[in-house]
Design brief:
With 118 residues, the protein is mainly α. It has three helices and two strands. It has a two-stranded antiparallel ribbon with strand order 1-2.
Length: 118
């Protein structure tokens, strides 16, 4: 397998962005973080964002940790799937709180109607 480094391409993208930022935006744009993860079966996955670098570092660390677990455990767990699953659990939890509150309001209304009818 021929392994090529993506570093020259990433450096060229960063250079182009710097020139674009300087010429059109007076260097006011935040420098993006470019992440490339090689996929040995299909090529590479790339991602570029202008978020703060520390948040990207945390996400990259999480992906690296999942990749390490997959490598050593021989599993194929998806880091994106874990993140999406965590969001779905959080949304379900918040949704259930609203449902419980709505049920409480309805129950209080029903009790109020029963008390008035006596």
């Amino acid at each position: 397998m021929n392994k090529q480094s993506l570093q020259p391409i990433i450096e060229k993208l960063e250079s182009l962005f710097s020139k674009f930022n300087e010429k059109f935006y007076n260097n006011e744009l935040q420098t993006p973080v470019i992440t490339v993860s090689p996929d040995t079966t299909k090529g590479a996955y790339g991602w570029c964002t202008a978020w703060k670098a520390w948040s990207i570092a945390l996400i990259a660390l999480f992906y690296a940790a999942v990749a390490a677990v997959n490598h050593f455990a021989g599993t194929t767990v998806s880091a994106t799937g874990i993140i999406c699953g965590a969001f779905m659990v959080a949304l379900a939890f918040i949704g259930n709180i609203f449902v419980a509150l709505w049920n409480l309001v309805v129950e209080m209304g029903e009790r109020h109607e029963r008390v008035e009818s006596i």
